[in-house]
Task: inverse folding
């Protein structure tokens, strides 16, 4: 495929910074142009775009990356095909993972593009074998330091990361309990993903339900949500319990984040808890080994992959807003371009 | 010395549970009697009583130990002499560390009594070579995972634990900054204990002072106080910063504890922080090695020992109330009985 700089390049930009909940029209499609790749950059075409709760947090302020500002192309993880190597060592047609954002074409430093293996489907490289699956596996094993027989609780358990966390916990011999937002998801994670139990945080009896699901307390809490669910989990943690702070969905899409959990440092001292933040980028040296383990479990039928692929870049704003409202099950992706690989 | 069960045994009991701040007359001397040691118990006589902020927390509610209730003899760490082995393997006259509490005599399980070495003075075995010194050394090295060149901040820096934490940090090559409650303590820890800097949390410019004292941020925060100081320290932590949650003095002596620090889990994720509780009892296997290190530093003149010894069991209530008000410098002890060893 020949693509000339200056050709049309469909993009979604942030056009209004949300005051509280993100709305679909805070993001708008724009006809941009294909950029000229600079020194050390390759030109890539987006095939698949990952839709993640973290996308929302990047709009809210500076996190572990620069804030997305009004007028910016929305940022996101992507799978792309190299269309112009521009003198870099990435051959045309190479399939790579990178951060092309919400657009058809991008010029990106070749060192920020990671060629991926032939494993199919490609979508797995953004999900179970990509950011969310690696986050689940490395976050749980490295930060959660799990042991067989321990009790694992994970929030957003039907989501892209949570659905893998719970299954990995089971495969490591833990009792796994999911926290979800609906009765349908509750059934899904117990019946389809083989969690030992699941409870809905929207139930009026949530606190009692969680206690009943974890009669011997919680050893590892993998937190994707923050807020009142984190507060409750900390109170139910056992001696030497661990919290993997991975995400805070409840804090991203609101003008008034909930207060911090109670009992800090009181419960932390009394129960000798460890509350630790996790960001996948710190653990790049473990990616290959983790992919091998996850891939093997998938092939053995032990790890069920759950994905939703939505067609068309223009559907991305609704896909993200819906994700933040909790409508997704498993990994949500947008197909931006045809898969030529 | 012959002591018969039923002989007089001066004790201090909790006679009123404090609604907020502990008052001297919440604790009262009582003439009890020397107990009859039971099976496996030795009879001991108290020589020195340790006065610790944690004593107050034990009154407030169940912590890592049972709550002290009205009518109970006040609990505390002690150095004692065995007066009646009662068939256990502790010879009469053996000097031991244990928890005899605020009384002259106690019958305690021999397995809960730890004979101590000949190192003099005995007071060191409750301070720098005892609970507070071991807490400082093991808490900092194991939970704080310090590295030379990093910035260490410790609160209650003129206290029994904090004064050792800061000096150990310096000996490990860290830049050490103390948080204290007065100008006199600020001078003491910088001039006498060789901290690199110190700031008073009572200063109206505390937040600015701390920033100026740590221009490159904080890598390890050793927390003895909780509350607003913990909140501020978390905001100043660098990427991958650690908090050793060791104590929470600001929460012990009040009816309305301050709220938890802000930014949990937000800052924990963004900065990949680790907030971890520490209790010395979990690390008993490391006591001997830690005592060796601390003892060597003392002998080399590198580690300055700071103690206050107050005479007489009846002075203990005022000693604790004063400690909670921040009047002590270094380790505070009460001499209960003559040192016959």
Result:
């Amino acid at each position: 495929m020949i693509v000339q700089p200056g050709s049309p390049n469909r993009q979604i930009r942030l056009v209004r910074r949300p005051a509280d909940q993100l709305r679909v029209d805070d993001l708008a499609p724009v006809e941009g142009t294909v950029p000229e790749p600079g020194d050390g950059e390759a030109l890539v075409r987006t095939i698949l775009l990952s839709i993640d709760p973290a996308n929302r947090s990047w709009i809210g302020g500076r996190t572990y990356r620069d804030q997305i500002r009004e007028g910016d192309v929305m940022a996101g993880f992507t799978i792309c095909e190299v269309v112009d190597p521009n003198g870099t060592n990435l051959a045309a047609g190479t399939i790579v993972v990178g951060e092309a954002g919400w657009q058809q074409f991008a010029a990106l430093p070749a060192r920020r593009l990671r060629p991926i293996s032939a494993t199919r489907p490609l979508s797995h490289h953004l999900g179970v074998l990509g950011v969310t699956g690696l986050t689940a596996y490395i976050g749980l094993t490295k930060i959660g330091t799990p042991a067989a027989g321990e009790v694992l609780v994970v929030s957003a358990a039907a989501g892209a990361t949570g659905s893998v966390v719970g299954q990995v916990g089971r495969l490591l011999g833990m009792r796994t309990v999911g926290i979800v937002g609906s009765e349908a998801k509750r059934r899904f994670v117990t019946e389809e993903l083989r969690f030992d139990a699941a409870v809905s945080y929207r139930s009026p009896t949530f606190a009692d339900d969680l206690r009943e699901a974890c009669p011997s307390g919680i050893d590892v809490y993998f937190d994707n949500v923050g807020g009142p669910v984190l507060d409750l989990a900390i109170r139910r943690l056992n001696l030497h319990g661990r919290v993997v702070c991975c995400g805070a969905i409840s804090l991203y899409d609101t003008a008034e984040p909930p207060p911090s959990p109670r009992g800090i440092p009181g419960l932390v001292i009394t129960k000798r808890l460890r509350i630790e933040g996790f960001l996948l980028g710190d653990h790049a040296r473990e990616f290959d080994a983790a992919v091998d383990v996850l891939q093997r479990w998938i092939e053995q039928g032990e790890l069920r992959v759950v994905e939703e692929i939505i067609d068309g870049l223009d559907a991305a704003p609704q896909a993200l807003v819906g994700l933040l409202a909790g409508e997704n099950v498993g990994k949500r992706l947008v197909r931006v371009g045809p898969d030529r690989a």
Observations:
- The interface with chain B takes residues 63-64, 223, 226, 230, 240, 243, 245-248, 251, 257, 259-266, 268-279, 282 of chain A (CB under 8 Å).
